[in-house]
Amino acid sequence: MKSDARSALPEKLRAIIKGNATDAIKARAEKALESWGKSEAPAPDATKTTTPLSGKLNAPIFEKRKPASAEDQALVEKLNADGRGVDGRGKAVAQANQDAHTERADRVAAAFGKRVVWVEGLAGDGFNHPGIDRSVIFLDPDSKRPVQVLIAHEIAHSLQRENPFGYKELLDNIRSAIDPEAWKEFVKRAQKAETDAGGKALSDAQLRNEFTANLIADHAVQQHAEAVRRENAERGGEYKGYSSYLKPEGREVASAAISAFLRDSGHSDHSFYNAQSPKDEARTPATKEEQEKFHADTVRRLGPQITTALHESLTGTGAKGKPVEVSGHWTRGAIHASLYARNLGQVGAHEAFHEFFSRLSEAGPAAAKVVDILSRAADSEYVTRQLERMLDGDKNALAQIKKGAPNYLEERMAYMFQFHQAAPPRRPPPAGACQSAWPGPANPGRRGSRARGACVFPAAA
Ligand SMILES: [Zn+2]
Ligand SMILES: [Zn+2]
Question: How much is the pTM?
Fold first, then answer.
């Protein structure tokens, strides 16, 4: 075991314990540090039987469907032509009346700079194809797994491509937390599924990536446990998740390592339950690290003359004119944000844009052309549709960007900038990533539905 990467996590945990974090966060870090030591103990008795089965729900994600946009269908045509992930007859669909669960999927995807396209006839539960559009996550509406699990699994594959160094560190950090029996069982099942589907055995790296994506999906479920429980209750069945992949004493370690990986990738645990409005679910305040980043990013964007302030409570005017708790607020020369903002980084970017735009508007004729270009982009149907999709479910934000609302063009620009800043840096995927086959679950009743991409959700677990 390499001591370099392995020692990184305890150090981070110790820093949290010594730092200015809240007691709740410190307690969690202490617990994680404690179990870190224990996880170096020898592997448990090999006769122990583990069943690392995630289980399935009874009902599909959604049944009432309507055709999706032409834009989505065009993407699925590309998938069909490529032949990976679908059997050539994939069809883009949308939920007839969007429910809270698929809305949540859209919000979580948006927090990672992605969007969901639902595909009937997808070979696996989920798929991402960087060659077609790396910001799109294709999901199967017929899947029997919770939607949060699917979205997080595919996001995990994206993060792995976008932050290969952080990902390597994550693999090193979770290794000791994994139940060796569960891993063996996973490998056996995964390879069987692969050979049953006529493919060749998966590489060690592919197996690790699928296993790890499932662990990250489980972590995402914990961030949204209430909502996922509601979804599971509505759809019935027995979804158990992937916690059996870990030694009981390894769970805190894995969870802390995944949190650290998300941070290192420019996100946080909260990205898995993105919403603009704070405080409608119990939240912990921003960590000292997040607070410092908020101040530093704002000064970097706007120069030292800007004032930044974080508040326990911040109110603004809601869609119906009533006071509501808000995430961020801008006044000339000052950026305010709530300590409980779901995504402090994005809120900072959004409010910084308002300051920038006000400076631009005062800069005279030289800047007028820029203002004109930005206004036309913000008024375009394409941008409006993108924003509406990304802000889906957020009534107050949708009211802000609605045509005719006060400063709606400027609000649209601020959201454009916010989501642009939230998208992870674009780097070419490292060689070898997502190139060889992972079997789609040989979907009963679906002919030829074998996927040929590495990023298909595994049928194994
Ligand atoms: Zn705004
Ligand atoms: Zn996968």
Answer: 0.54
